[in-house]
Specification:
Elements (H helix, E strand, L loop, with lengths): L9 H10 L4 H8 L3 H9 L7 H11 L19 E3 L7 H21 L18 H14 L11 H7 L3 E3 L10 E4 L5 E4 L6 H17 L8 H15 L2 H8 L6 H11 L3 H10 L5 H13 L2 H4 L12 H8 L8 H8 L3 H8 L23
Parallel strand pairs: 2-4
Antiparallel strand pairs: 1-3, 3-4
Helix pairs in contact: 1-3, 1-5, 2-3, 6-9, 8-9, 12-13
Length: 370
Amino acid sequence: MPVRGRVFVGERLQLAREFNDLTQKGVGWQVAASHALVSQYETGKRKDPTHDLVEAFADVLGFRPEFFYETVNDAFREEECSFRHRRSTPERLKTQIRAHATLLGMVIERLSSHFKFPAIYVPKIPASTPEEIESAAEQSRRHWNLDLEGPILQIGRVLERAGVIIVPHVVPSTKVDAFSRNGATTVIFLNQSVRSTSRWHFDIAHECGHLVMHAGMSTGDEETETAANRYASAFLMPRNAFARDFRTVPFSWRHIFDLKGRWRVSAAAIVKRAYDLGLLGAVGYRRAFQYMSKMGWRTNGEPQEPEFQPPELLVAALNGLGSRVDMTLQGLCEGLHFAPETFEKVTGVRVPELKVNPVDVICFPSAAQS
């Protein structure tokens, strides 16, 4: 139950509602209140909902009543966030994803009081022209002590060692491939419902480009998305080493897939990189994409996908609860005032049910024995 004297925080109600992709009218209908009343509590015009209304909010939205009586220390704001395929992403979906990310930030904040996460170590290199972007990608490799001559075998591990937490799930939708936030808690969300490991590699590199080049900038327009794509290509396939590999034999699909196995990117990304570097002419580029469309690779996925190293930081911390530190998953969930189902939606990790130890019972003799 809410603690007497504590103030109801409307921002938390809005956050919980947006996470559940509900309108104020939808919440009002479910809790038997007007949408105007819900709006007033969200904006803070009213601060004293009755206990039964708070309990109704909690039941409908998947939280405990106490959830609504704490401040939001680190909300994920629109200007901090980048969406892959943002132009085709509905505003309501972006709002839901930011709410999801803010809740995950609460989980990470609580975990950070028990575990030492790597410090943020991402270079900030503003870039916009093709040459500036190529240079930014090369400087990033040097910053992280990566060889300029070879592929990055585990890009997720590179970013996580630099303090970027990669989350292997986001609100299921084909409208978003990935999402990142550049702030106090820096995260990259992957949409692994898109079953392509080469795309996951590229998506991480794309979001890395936003973190490196676009700190403090609004992203999602054609210019910043094109720049992040160019950065991803340059970061994953350094121009000099890639050019040498591409030129070893004349163009063939067997060679393209050999390069795919080496550089761990899609055939489409290899063809685009070759075109951008002047290794493949416009006619060859167009014919290559025509062939990929004919084969169904651009809609149904490509063959010979590379291995993918799953994200480790968040999973390792959650798995360490109860063994490496005193706090358990149940304790974390209860401390955040999440319902177990909400905790699983936010983190992808199920909270096990508590095992109740049997109570000692004194057995009395039956009437026949007495």
